[in-house]
């Protein structure tokens, strides 16, 4: 599970990598127009309705680049935001604000887009009892941020990586020689604390998974009728997950299947960004900013 504490512990190295990708030597454009320190402010503006996610990441980009940079957030992660809304005021060395702008926005726009898309699917599943979760279909080196964004949109996380749980997919089953064989091998090898999930593509595989004692059975790309038959057969002997090309266009139909969980790769691989902009950068007299006009 990815929460804000986990983000703080693990995010800094990834943010540094993103900054290093964008600045290999110097920010030539900024160095050309700003030769020395100049205090300034800019506004973070929302250009679409949505759900915000990644404000601490956005802020940390600037603080990593320079002491004294400060983001006064006017919203928090998970908040719904509207077009035209002022989300934050960013202040500090204008060279830092200019250099960090794109990296900070890249994180925030991507994460907020995922949170917004997730929230839409959660709304479409209301009243069904189905829990919406993500998958490992994430952008390389962005999984931490993307899975956190899913949670900010009201969804849940599937396993974070290959070490979290046993998930026996079609190729694992093929390599083992069948569902029963694969589950038996997993039970013999994996720690007793780890659940074993089996991907099933038809009723024969479902029956084998139940007989083998799988904890979770994933119904992968099965028809609605076949999934209902599978749920009735499993009858609570395992958790049931639905998977396979789930999008906001078709997720509502899954409400009547009777499953426990629906996993959706589209949350992280197909969500559009939420359009945000850092605007109105301008110099500010630091004494006036700190003490008020004319020393007041």
Question: What's the SSE blueprint?
Answer:
Layout: H1 4-22, H2 28-33, E1 39-46, E2 50-51, H3 55-65, E3 70-73, E4 80-81, E5 86-93, H4 94-124, E6 131-133, H5 143-152, E7 166-168, H6 170-176, H7 179-189, E8 196-200, H8 203-212, E9 216-220, H9 224-234, E10 239-243, E11 261-263, H10 266-269, E12 276-283, H11 286-291
Parallel strand pairs: 6-11, 7-8, 8-9, 9-10, 10-11
Antiparallel strand pairs: 1-5, 1-12, 2-4, 3-5
Describe this structure in words.
This protein is of the alpha/beta class. The protein has 2 domains: 4-117 and 273-295, Aldehyde Oxidoreductase, domain 3, CATH 3.90.1170.20; 122-269, TIM Barrel (Alpha-Beta Barrel). The chain has 11 helices and 12 strands. The chain has helices at residues 4-22, 28-33, 55-65, 94-124, 143-152, 170-176, 179-189, 203-212, 224-234, 266-269, 286-291, and strands spanning 39-46, 50-51, 70-73, 80-81, 86-93, 131-133, 166-168, 196-200, 216-220, 239-243, 261-263, 276-283. The strands form 3 sheets. It has a 6-stranded parallel beta sheet. It has a 4-stranded antiparallel beta sheet with strand order 3-5-1-12, covered by helices on one side. Helix 1 (4-22) crosses helix 3 (55-65), helix 4 crosses helix 5 (143-152) and helix 7 packs parallel to helix 8 (203-212). The longest helix is centred in the middle third of the chain and has 31 residues, at 94-124. It is elongated, with a radius of gyration of 24 Å.
